[in-house]
Design goal:
Blueprint: E1 2-3, E2 7-10, E3 24-28, E4 35-43, E5 46-53, E6 59-65, E7 73-78, E8 90-96, E9 102-109, E10 115-125, E11 128-131, E12 171-172, E13 181-182, E14 190-193, E15 208-210, E16 222-229, E17 237-244, E18 249-256, E19 259-266, E20 269-275, E21 281-288, E22 294-300, E23 307-308, E24 313-314, E25 326-333, E26 340-348
Antiparallel strand pairs: 1-2, 2-3, 4-5, 5-6, 6-7, 8-9, 9-10, 10-11, 12-15, 13-14, 14-26, 15-25, 16-21, 16-26, 17-18, 17-25, 18-19, 19-20, 21-22, 22-23, 22-24
């Protein structure tokens, strides 16, 4: 195993992944600080350590030696400085396809939506895996040849909650409590029950999240809308739709005694609160732009006319949470558990 930050060491492991040898220093980064993210390969006569000098302006490098313990020589295989979708592309893995082509999957820090996967072709030149074409990362390119034709498919985003499993795009923010959510108790709906009494969204269990998408030129925002039935909420429950990162914001229904309120919360502060009137179902929407870094929140009683509530969230990409901003569906209790809400669908444009 290769590991380290700035200084790279090799450690021998046994089959149980327990260290059985010392941490042997094999290379000290000399371009700048932050050499990290090493992947180890044995290709032909060389051991390769494929890593990066990290940061928004990352530099992808390869170290190679005929001995796993070095000495290693170093080569920059991609240093992309062109403003745009490839600026600073770095840190990933080398891949050989079934047809013998070589590729690398890297990422780019691309604003509040977080780190975007970035696939680049690789050419072997004098025994070095050179990334992109003519020293530059490609913006558009042919697909890898994997020995078989596959139909074009889009990534899943929307979910009608009609099956017995969630779509692959979803991820729980915490390990979920499986007894407090269901797709079968109310067929065609995602039921989220309150799981424990908490202070705010950061402590809530069973918060369901997915990453938004951005067009590669970033000019088109991502718009998420959901319909939620709030009939069975208990006093103190808060349920709705949010943009989730360390600085989060949401639009939600809050049960206050016998009244339901529609609230907009930004970074923990309640910015706006209005009566939900007598409605038991409400449409909630958020529009998030990776380009402007802003997210807005709206509501509707008929899914036709939407009104804004509260202010804008200025999204940030905090390495304390190490993910981009995500859409989230949630229901949490601040006073007592036992309430639940039903999400009819979640749709992303």
């Amino acid at each position: 195993m290769a590991h380290g930050y700035g200084t790279i060491r090799i450690t021998e492991l046994n089959h149980e992944f327990t260290a059985i040898g010392p941490d042997s220093l094999v290379f000290t980064g000399d371009i700048r600080g932050g050499l990290e993210g090493m992947h180890v390969y044995k290709i032909n006569d060389f051991y390769y350590l494929y890593g990066t000098y990290g940061g928004v302006d990352g530099i992808q490098v390869t170290l190679r030696s005929k001995n796993i313990y070095g000495p290693y020589e170093q080569k920059v295989v991609l240093e992309e400085r062109t403003p745009g979708v490839n600026f600073g592309v770095h840190q990933g893995a080398l891949i050989e396809t079934q047809s013998g082509e070589w590729w690398t999957m890297l990422f780019v820090d691309s604003g509040p939506f977080g780190r975007m996967p970035n696939l680049q072709p690789v050419s072997w030149v004098d025994g070095w895996p050179m990334v992109g074409l003519d020293g530059k990362a490609v913006v558009t390119y042919r697909k890898p040849n994997v020995g078989k034709e596959y139909p074009v498919k889009d990534f899943p985003r929307s979910d009608e909650f009609e099956g017995n499993t969630l779509g692959m795009q979803w991820g729980w923010n915490h390990n979920p409590n499986p007894t407090k959510w269901s797709l079968t108790e109310h067929s065609g709906y995602l039921r989220l029950k309150t799981a424990k009494v908490v202070a705010d969204l950061l402590e809530a269990r069973n918060t369901l999240t997915q990453r938004p998408f951005a067009h590669y030129n970033q000019a088109i925002p991502s718009v998420a809308t959901t319909q939620i039935d709030v009939t069975k909420m208990k006093n103190g429950d808060i349920a709705g739709l949010g943009i989730f990162q360390e600085a989060y914001a949401f639009i939600a229904v809050k049960q206050v005694a016998d009244e339901k309120q529609l609230v907009m919360v930004n970074k923990g502060d309640t910015i706006a609160s209005i009566s939900l009137k007598k409605a038991n179902s409400i449409y909630l929407r958020t529009t998030a732009s990776n380009k402007s870094r802003l997210a807005t929140f709206e509501y509707s009683y008929d899914n036709q006319k939407f009104d804004k509530l509260g202010n804008e969230l200025r999204m940030s990409f905090s390495l304390k949470m190490f993910t981009g901003n995500k859409f989230c569906l949630f229901n949490y209790a601040t006073k007592e558990i036992g309430g639940y809400v039903d999400f009819d669908w979640f749709r992303v444009e």
